[in-house]
User: Fold this.
Amino acid sequence: MIQTLLIANRGEIACRIARTAGAMGIRTVAVYSEADAGALHVERCDAAVPIGPAPASDSYLKAEVIVEAARASGADAVHPGYGFLSENADFAAACGEAGIVFVGPPVSAIQAMGSKAEAKALMEKAGVPLVPGYHGVAQDLTTLAAAAEKIGYPVLLKASAGGGGRGMRVVEAPVDLEPAIASAKRESAAAFGDDRLLVEKYLSRPRHVEVQVFADGHGNVVHLFERDCSVQRRHQKVLEEAPAPDLDPAIRAAMGAAAVAAARAIGYVGAGTVEFILDATGFYFMEMNTRLQVEHPVTELITGIDLVEWQLRVAGGEALPLTQDQIVVTGHAFEARLYAEDPVDFRPQTGRINHLRFPGPPARVDTGVRQGDTVSIHYDPMIAKLIVHGRDRAEALGRLSRALAETEVAGLVTNQPFLARLAAHPAFKAAEVHTGFIEEHAAALIPEPQSPSNQVLALAALAILRHRADLASATPSGDPYSPWRAVSGWRLNEAAVQTLILEQGDKRHVVSLRQEGDGYRMITPATGLSVQDARGDKDRLRAVIGGAAITAGLAFDGATVTLFLPEVPSVLSWIDPLDAAGELDDVGGRLTAPMPGKIISVQVKDGDVVTRGAPLVVLEAMKMEHTIAAPGDGRVVKIHYQAGDLVEEGADLLEFEPSDEA
Ligand code: ADP
Ligand code: ADP
Ligand code: MG
Assistant:
């Protein structure tokens, strides 16, 4: 039995492992880089050891430093998590030499599966079906070209030492082969220090289906059924489910048996995953991951088995708690990986998580960050995994959509709207999954950014007015739900108009609301939209706008508000008209055009009484919008232009009469 476990990882997986270890009464030791001194995984462990500077190569990948940390902290076992040193045979060996249990397979099994080429050769011998391809030793162009010719184009080049989708190139025709080999070799050498390649038949529209296996040191090997991880971008998983939908029972059984055979062939112990590619012609071995997988929770939810608990028991010398017959599938599970990533090009994003709110049960959320934490350039940009279970696929998918809708992240761009669209897509609902799914449905999944609707603009304006009223009166008096609260200190007369300039990307929207009864009426940009029945607090606002109820979660950060709407969060910054006014010269009774341009909109009418800073006229010049604001409190006497008019520099736009008190 393990007494003290050092977790040689960070982020969500370190927290995940600490949770189970803690529940089993095992003392946990975290390791952390300089960037992670305040990280959640450090907080979740009983002790913590610093291991060096932020870059992983100087800390989380330093095998000897981590072994020393384990020794110094009295750990009798090390759990490597996934990524980092989890599939590093030298690290596993170093643990063994130091008398520390490596929670994972024997060194020989890691070595056997470490090279995709050697793994394929081994599996061929064990009778496991392979994708047609070449995985020989010779690496010269003539050999690779002849192999590709024999396999038939299109072919896929893969780094033999590869992982994380790196070093892979699809080659459509012979003419493209040579440059693709060169670039795949360069990428593999840089990423893995090994430039050997293998060539495979590139299957079109296949599925990625993988089998979870488990073995103990007493000769027992079982599988925990399969996961479908077909929904990928850049050959990497974003959404996983278990069991694989619409899988022929005979194929399921054959895959399970093949995976168990693969594990047996290499004397496997612990948790492992055998990855297959599946198409109409059959299923084929791709690789075996000799570690806990990112998506292991979906298997946990359909089997009721805690995989980390099994790993720790097996590492402690126990036999597997269940036999194959005792492992049954109940219902269906999904996992969505929430990344700090812009779905437009799937590029990782960095930044501070200013606001973070996760769904509650029945969703399970595995995360390694809290509000206020930073996603840095040093590590994986995954923020959390949202995991749900249901009695069947439809119920589980409904819960996934709900969990995604309840997730709120502000401060950086995430793939949350993209995941929400994926979960709601009719083809995904119909389980028409294959590895090209995202590409095929890109138009629907990654739509052009749209301007916020007038309903959203009105809600945003209302939220900002209430927020500013809160800031203005630290102790708001009276009914906190009254919309009147929003206008303290602003109301001028019966027809008080509130105007805000809202900015999203490079677009500006002027929004004016006029008080009416106990609500408002929008006068710009949509005249006549009623805004009523506002309810909420600083985190949430509901209103009936244009007769339709709309609710949004809110997160304020300086002069930026994020509205969490059912599918897409809307981030809007407001430009305070008072600040805008400060930039203008006070020109007495005349307001002139600062440069030649076109009148975009006129915000007021003759005779209107306005406060200092109220936008009067919006002018477009030099591809920018300029707002002419009231230089002080006063009255608009006469407006000389209307929307659409072209004006010269210095043109008199309107006559303005400052009020006496000003
Ligand atoms: P990695 O080590 O990067 O995970 P894999 O060999 O598991 O590499 O492949 C990653 C992904 O690439 C798979 O999940 C699958 O979507 C795709 N892929 C791999 N091999 C093929 C193939 N022969 N044909 C089509 N797609 C493939
Ligand atoms: P799986 O096959 O288990 O789904 P993936 O290949 O999608 O795994 O992701 C594993 C990858 O996650 C690693 O290769 C690495 O790039 C990245 N990674 C490593 N450590 C962490 C971590 N602590 N948190 C998040 N991601 C990590
Ligand atoms: Mg893989």
